[in-house]
Amino acid sequence: MVKRTPEETSEETSEGTSAGPSKSSSAAAPPRTPRRTDGLSREVIVQAATELLDGGGESALTLRALTVRLSTGYGAIYHHVADKGDLLAAATDDVITRVLADMVMDADPREALRRMAVGLFDAIDAHPWVGTELSRQPWRPAMVEFYESIGRLLDALAVPEPARFDAAGTLVNYVMGVAGQNAANARRRAGDDTDRAAFLDNVAEQWAQLDPDRYPFVHAATTRLREHDDREQFITGVDIFLAGIAALH
Amino acid sequence: MVKRTPEETSEETSEGTSAGPSKSSSAAAPPRTPRRTDGLSREVIVQAATELLDGGGESALTLRALTVRLSTGYGAIYHHVADKGDLLAAATDDVITRVLADMVMDADPREALRRMAVGLFDAIDAHPWVGTELSRQPWRPAMVEFYESIGRLLDALAVPEPARFDAAGTLVNYVMGVAGQNAANARRRAGDDTDRAAFLDNVAEQWAQLDPDRYPFVHAATTRLREHDDREQFITGVDIFLAGIAALH
DNA sequence: CTTTCTTTGGATCGGCGATCCAAAGCGCAT
DNA sequence: ATGCGCTTTGGATCGCCGATCCAAAGAAAG
Q: What nucleotides of chain C have any atom within 7 angstroms of a protein Cβ?
């Protein structure tokens, strides 16, 4: 078999009519890069997609980039994957599943709930694109594990059945909200070369310039905006909801 | 104002060379559609964009569709608008501002908070694309009004200053989470021609087929999933939050 | 009327997701 | 072993998108 180096392929494309299929094959023998020896698979593709996403955000996942990274063509990828959405969903499921696998359920239900929420928070913090995709498709199969754990822990907290469903949904909605916001911040951080502190300073400055008479609260909150820690604030929010759930009996 | 009928534009385009700049003008006089008499403006464009978004979701807002709807060209639009993101943000601000303008602050802070959250919920329910854009950019200028109102109402609820900032953020995050989820549902509804009930039935059926031993909570929640009302569940969540605030002092 | 500036229309570009097809390998039946 | 069909691969191609660019058309200034 002739080992052909991946040089430039044919530059001059046929300038045939616009819609004509290439039925009558021309004389020129088309050079082909050799077929890959190691088999492509859905897992390999998902893995490569995850690395692209982690490296450059959601915009870095393009079919073109995938073909380059895997040294293959479009057809090979689309043979294992339905479309780009399928790929993004699979990568998200992958991350979520991994997070849940590492989770240990504590004895105290309250602490376990807090730990689960924080686990999801940290995962989204590490992979912001997961937050975006998750807030777009909150009912992925991988999330069922989450709902189940939350439901059980609420049961352990003696939340009665009629309210348990609403309580679980509320908690999930809160986590999703933070996820989306975090992902948005991370996106902005990557887009601009201003880091998180600079971005917050920017918002805080705009807030500080508001009329203190019309916007007393926002105007006064600028200091806290600069200093606050996202993770701690998130946990505080979880505690608020847990307290509210306990108060509802 | 002269309403120009949307007649056919020029059909036959010039078939110039592929990459050559049209410096040396050829002999053929290029036919031009007449210039519009009524002035274009940023507001008119934002209005048209909103109608497109309401009509066909986020994917319906394309520059091409805008030029057709306004009977104009790309250049005219880009003269008034920075880029597509600017346009989407402006349309979102427009909707949010309108919602806030119609809001009346009640005497009871608890009821007022509930009303504000529901107002945002209803607006996003009516314009799902607002939810997506809002969860992507939670710090739009139009949202400052919201933060301010929430802060004042929390103050009226005697939430002390150190906790007020966290509490306001938590509530906003919760609302954002619901917003994103709602927008996702609406998107799916529009994509498939299955309506909301059919979609929920689909999810519920998948849940029902899970192993009842491994997933007792999710398996049992299918009935509630089918029957629950999004709006009521959202309000329940707000009440949980309010109870949590009260419990934490 | 002439010049200058603002606003408009549309050709064009590069990049994207998706489709399609032929080549290449692989396995099974003969 | 040999031919034949099925699976997998590589890449040309299509249509559409956002964005850029430029010349024409009018409005304003002189």
A: 7-13, 15-25
